[in-house]
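Following up on my earlier thread - several people asked me to post the actual chain instead of describing it. Fair enough. Here it is, all 414 residues.
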Amino acid sequence: MLKTTFITALVALTTSASAWLPDTEPHAMNERDNEIFVYPLRTEPNNKRWLPATKKMRGVNLGSLFIYEPWIDSQEWANTGCEGEKSEFDCVLNKGQDTADSNFQAHWKRWINQTDLDEMLSYGLNTIRVPLGYWLKEDLVDNSEHFPKGGLEYLTQLCGWASDRGLYIILDLHGAPGAQEPNQPFTGQYAPTVGFYSDYNYDRAIEWLEWMTDIIHTKKEYRNVGMLELVNEPLNWDKAVDSLRKTYYPKAYSAIRNVEDKLKVTSNDRLHIQVMGSLWGSGKPTEFLSDTSLTAFDDHRYLKWDTSVEVSHEAYIKKSCSDDRNTDGPTIVGEWSLAVPDEVEKTDAWNPQTQKEFYTKWFSAQVHAYEKHALGWVFWTWKANLGDDYRWSYRDAVRAGVIPKDLDSLPSVC
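Reply from S.P.:
Thanks for posting it. Predicted structure:
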C-alpha cells in the first residue's frame, strides 16, 4: 500500500479481459462483469467462488495483519517488539528469530479476530482483501532473509472465520521476493533497491502462487477465497516492469491454471487471477497473456497524491463523482481512503473532526463512482491507530459517524 508518488495515466479501453464473454461489446461486457460475484456467499464447503449476482463488492483491507506497516499503529508495532524498526525484515533480524516469531504470533492473534469480522458484517461489508508476504511459505526464504514464521496457521483460521460468515476473500501477494518497490515496508522489507524483477525471484513468487492455489482448493477454510492477486503495486513508469508483463504474468497465470487442472477444479470454481490495471502505470497487464479467462484488475486510487486535481472540497467531490477506473475489464478499486495531501491534512479546512460533513460526502462520491464503473471497492484499511484521524481507518470512520453503518443511506452527492 501507501504509494507516495502520483500515478496518472489515460489508457484507451482495452478488449475483453474475460474469456467468459468472448464476443460481447465493451458496454455489454462491463454490464455482465459487474455481476460476477454473489453475496451473501454460501458457507458450505462446496461453495462456488463466483456466481451471477447484483451486489457490488464492499470491503476492507486487513492492513498490517500479515505485513506490518509501522505508520498504521506505532503502539502495536512497539507491542510486537519492533519499536524503531522500519520493517518486519529489520525487526526479525535485530530481535532474533525465536523472539520475533513469538511476538508476531501474538500480534496476529490480537490484530484481527472474530469480533472484527462481525463488526464488518454489521456495517454491510461483504469482502476482505488480505495482504500476504511470500515468506508465508517458509522454505522460500533464503539464509539472507529474515521474516516471522508461523503465519499460515493464522491465515487458515482467518479464512475459516470469514468463510463461515459468507465474506468474499481476496488474497494478495503484497510482499514479493526481493521487494517489488524500494523503501516500502508494505513489501515486508525496507529494501534500498528492488530485486523482484529477475527470473530467480519470479520463480519464487510463482512457487508461492502454486502453493497457495493448492491450499485454497484443498482446505475447506479457504472456500470463499475467489481471487488471487499476482503482485501488489509493482514499479510503474519503469522499464523493469517490461519483464513483469512478458515473463512473470504469463508464467504465473499458467502456473495457477496448471495446479487447478491437476486438481480437476471445475470451471465454475476456478480462481479469478488479479493484476494491477493499466491505470497503475505498469503497462497493459494482458499484453502477453494468451488466455485471459477469469482475470480481474486492481486499481488503487488515492487523490492524496493526484496533483492534477485542485485541492478543494468541491474539486475532490467533483473528480470522485466522475472517476471511471475501469479500463481493462472487471476492475475492483482495491485500495482507496479519505486521506488528503500532507500539506493540508492538518489545516482547519481539512480537519477530520470539524469537516465530517465533507468527508461523508467525499466517501459517498467515491463509492458512487467505484460501484458505477467497477465491480466495487476495498477501503484501505480496516483499522489504524492515528488518534482522532479516521481517514485511513474504515472502522474509526464509522465510529466517528462519517461512514454510515447502512451504506445504502449515503447521501447523494453526484
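The domain at 26-409 is CATH 3.20.20.80 (TIM Barrel). That should answer part of your original question.
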